[in-house]
């Protein structure tokens, strides 16, 4: 009898909006440790910014035909329609990957995605090597996810006792908690933006939420040894009951607490002035995330904009294509209730 082929490992990389998942993956592509990688990328919004950034890296270890983008949705809600077919596409290649990397939307809950690996179509062919949660040190230290560690510990105890009525301070906190509770490895990103007291606050927050959490691995600029990320052999799909989620008692999950839209901007002659204006706009309207590409007249390259809260970063990522229409578009993400008309008016200047 022939020996069954070993399962292809897959790593789920989760983390809230702007935690640094794409930066981490780009570093992994540049240093894959000899592995032939493939990517499935999901974004909350119509402009595939993360996919465009990763496809633009030009790294031969992961050519564009091994990058699958699933935009305008969230994998935890579209497993049957989007994720499983995408996974099968990679598995059915003549040269299947050695390892599959799945970057979830910052608003995705990882547990429903891990559960998809128990489906008959994939369970004999692929396994979840590990769930990696990327936690932004600056965001946690500033209290965006868990301003009260004691209250967080009480919520965790209530969840484990089966209390489905636990309330949360914000929808942001709820998503963050689900991501940490499902993780086999927790990476603390953006460590260059906080001091040791801030890093201690991150550790305290995670410990309050999950006393038995795996050790925290500090990362700056997405630089991490691929052997730290890959090869965990967690088989997470066989360990679902131990991964507590706020939505374990729900048949369906949606993202009614969050909204996104794409805003068109005119060309921007002064990128520095744009950064200042975007910082002010995000603060004024409570925007969680901004990302997209800007046309700067006279510049042959497109300007990549990445904003988390009021912190806006820009860089020129690649040349505009010869047949590519130059333009400026930003994905705006926030909690439901954003004043779209007012934000678009502010951005249109």
UniProtKB/TrEMBL annotation:
GO terms for molecular function: hydrolase activity; nucleotide binding. CDD domains: CobW-like. GO terms for biological process: cobalamin biosynthetic process. It catalyses: GTP + H2O = GDP + phosphate + H(+). The keyword Hydrolase applies. Residues 258-347 form the CobW C-terminal domain. Signal peptide: none annotated. One of its GO terms (cellular component) is cytoplasm. Keywords: Chaperone, Hydrolase, Nucleotide-binding. Belongs to the SIMIBI class G3E GTPase family. ZNG1 subfamily. Zinc chaperone that directly transfers zinc cofactor to target proteins, thereby activating them. Zinc is transferred from the CXCC motif in the GTPase domain to the zinc binding site in target proteins in a process requiring GTP hydrolysis. This is Cobalamin biosynthesis protein CobW. It comes from Nitrospirillum amazonense.
